[in-house]
Design brief:
11-stranded mixed sheet, 7-stranded mixed sheet, 11 helices, about 25% strand
Length: about 650
């Protein structure tokens, strides 16, 4: 038997980065025994002959547990528990957990890099000189797509057409490609900042984004109450104003997450899904959309558009106290909702979908919540492939639902027409929700479940069982970064009819519930989201930037498929919305817009072993930090 090293095991930390404090384990062709001598921390659960790993000269290998405790093999996003005596194949890049959730090693073959394919087509090894084993052939497709976000690079002038994920601290660099941190968006010479959120930790916010200390005027629209409100008041700088929008209906919250930053050149609008606390901007899967808008010129002062109308209506509902500031060239102005009419939103690339609390009827029935989304979608024409195609509901908190209301929501989200003017038809919802095992093995362990705050009485309803689908995010590297992002979409494979990035969870409080024979919509909470639709555009120049004076304020003209229409002077080009996993075919008449949907589509249904997470259950199986649930979780700096 040759003793030439042909592969090795790389020890990993909990975040799956290499643990350089432990030596790699070289593997020669033949059988190698792995056990307690190969780990740095004593663990009685490991035997000296814990498993045997048989490597072959062609780069393949087989693993067989020898001890009494099972071993886990993770290939892509599939985790398989292997018990004593079982023999399973492994390939380069697979992660082995000597004890489930503990002692991670990555198997790496010299013949196959774990992160890219090698075709061996150089002069010494002509193409086809080594036949791939069966396991490699089955996994080739996975390798091509498992790091799809690595190729997500968007030109600056097209950033507003898509959204971006927030950076996750513990992920490898490839998983944070084109992702953003809070300092990537709050930057430059800000004159006034309006920060809208639910939870606000001012000490953390200032430490993470010290530029805010230089902003002369900051308004914080928040949803804090009781003890956290007192903390907010004590920690705010003197020039900051706090306002909690009115909540006229019980059990409502101010949940919208947005930033409105006023610059000498214009306004930056940021709509996202993260609370202003450390864990939300460092440990979780989150989404963010941003676009800059210039000041209106004198000719267009009275001119508005759908985006502006929706924005001003929403801001008016917040009823914040106007305050006076002195701005360059404008002098003293009052910062109130009407002030935001001074900006030109003609190049807005999204539509706003907002919720405000109240009993909405008459002309207001279709202004908010799911009825607003229904109204916009009803005016849109979609490709025939979306006829009766499914819906994906992905969120981080589940309200008290019933089958009737879920059907009401699905009806709104199924609106729209095909090219032949026939309705798209009802789509079957898929509810993407983390399992108990997802949470236990996440970057935060059970602590992540604190931000997935749904009780068992809401989660364990029988009618929901057929909708449960897995949180699987291999292609964005976010399988272990639990979702706080909220997305709702209609899809067919990797093609998207539309997508909504929003603060709204799956609840009547957020979306609204029809009452009085469908003549009234009752909403309890404030929510805000952006709707991505197929659109038509004609480039007229560079996109506008508040922070880069070298970019001209000559915007790209966007017109949606509602009643706007394009001027005959411009050639129309339609955008095609797709996921990062999309591989074509390319429609020559369309501009492809990739949206970084962090989870897999189509989603996989729960297996019989999967249990949806409920935060009021007790879980005694220890997480990746050796903790059980419930446990205390600190969310604020103080």
């Amino acid at each position: 038997m040759s003793h030439t090293q042909i592969s090795y095991l790389i020890p990993l930390k909990l975040n799956l980065e290499e643990d350089t404090s432990i030596p790699k384990i070289p593997l020669a062709a033949g059988s190698t025994t792995i056990g307690r001598t190969h780990v740095s921390v004593p663990d009685k659960r490991l035997s000296r002959n814990h498993l045997s790993l048989t490597a072959t000269a062609d780069g393949s290998a087989f693993l067989t547990p020898e001890g009494s405790n099972p071993v886990v093999v993770k290939s892509g996003d599939e985790r398989k528990k292997v018990r004593a005596g079982e023999k399973v194949p492994i390939i380069s890049g697979d992660v082995i957990e000597l004890i489930p959730g503990h002692h991670f090693f990555k198997f790496v073959s010299k013949f196959n890099s774990p992160n890219k394919r090698q075709f061996h087509n150089d002069a010494s090894k002509p193409s086809g000189s080594r036949k791939k084993n069966k396991v490699e052939e089955e996994c080739d497709g996975l390798r091509d797509t498992e790091e799809a976000i690595r190729k997500f690079n968007v030109d600056d002038d097209k950033l507003s057409q898509t959204f971006r994920l927030l950076k996750v601290k513990e992920l490898p660099a490839w998983a944070n490609t084109s992702c953003v941190s809070i300092t990537d968006v709050i930057q430059g010479d800000i004159l006034v900042a309006v920060l809208s959120n639910y939870m606000v930790d001012i000490p953390w916010l200032i430490s993470a984004c010290p530029i805010l200390t230089k902003v002369p005027h900051v308004l914080v629209l928040h949803g804090e109450g009781d003890g956290s409100l007192e903390l907010l008041k004590r920690s705010k700088p003197a020039n900051w104003i706090l306002h909690k929008p009115p909540l006229p209906i019980s059990f409502g919250t101010h949940h919208s997450k947005a930033m409105f930053l006023i610059y000498p050149r214009g306004v930056r609008i940021i709509i996202h899904t993260a609370n202003l606390i450390f864990v939300d901007w460092n440990n979780k899967s989150q989404g963010l959309w941003m676009q800059d808008f210039p000041w209106k010129d004198e000719k267009s002062q009275a001119k508005g558009c759908a985006f502006e109308n929706d924005l001003i209506d929403y801001l008016n509902a917040l009823k914040w106290p106007g305050f006076t500031v002195k701005l360059p060239e404008l002098g003293n102005v009052t910062i109130n909702p009407s002030f935001f009419k001074k900006f030109d939103y003609g190049n807005a690339t999204v539509r706003l979908i907002a919720s405000v609390p109240g009993y909405h009827s008459g002309a207001n029935l279709k202004k908010w919540g799911h009825m607003k989304l229904r109204t916009i979608l009803e005016e849109c024409i979609f490709a025939k492939e979306f006829k009766n195609s499914p819906l994906a509901f992905q969120f981080s908190s589940l309200g008290s639902l019933d089958a009737k209301w879920l059907s009401e929501l699905a009806t709104s989200l199924s609106s729209g027409l095909t090219q032949d003017k026939t309705p798209l038809g009802l789509g079957e919802p898929r509810i993407i929700w983390p399992t108990v095992e997802n949470v236990r093995c996440s970057l935060e362990g059970y602590a992540a479940g604190n931000a997935i705050p749904s009780p068992s009485k809401n989660v364990e309803k029988d009618f929901l069982k057929k909708y449960w689908s897995k949180w699987k995010a291999t292609h964005t590297g976010r399988c272990r970064a639990m979702p706080h992002i909220k997305t709702f979409t209609r899809y067919n494979g990797q093609n998207l009819a539309w997508l909504l990035l929003t603060s709204a969870n799956l609840s009547k409080a957020a979306w609204g519930a029809l009452q009085k024979n469908n003549s009234q919509l009752m909403i309890r909470s404030y929510e805000l989201g952006v709707l991505f639709l197929p659109s038509f555009y004609k480039k007229r120049g560079n996109s506008f930037s508040c922070t880069n004076p070298r970019v001209k304020s000559e915007p790209t003209l966007f017109e949606f498929q509602d009643k706007c229409g394009l001027s005959e002077d411009f050639e129309a080009v339609k955008t095609q919305l797709v996921t990062l996993m999309w591989r074509g075919p390319v429609d020559p008449s369309s501009e492809v817009v990739r949206l970084p949907v962090p989870y897999e589509l189509p989603p996989q249904p729960y297996s019989s072993e999967d249990v949806p997470w409920s935060w009021d259950r007790q879980y005694s199986k220890k997480d990746v930090y050796g903790q059980v649930w419930p446990r205390s979780v600190q969310l604020y700096t103080s």
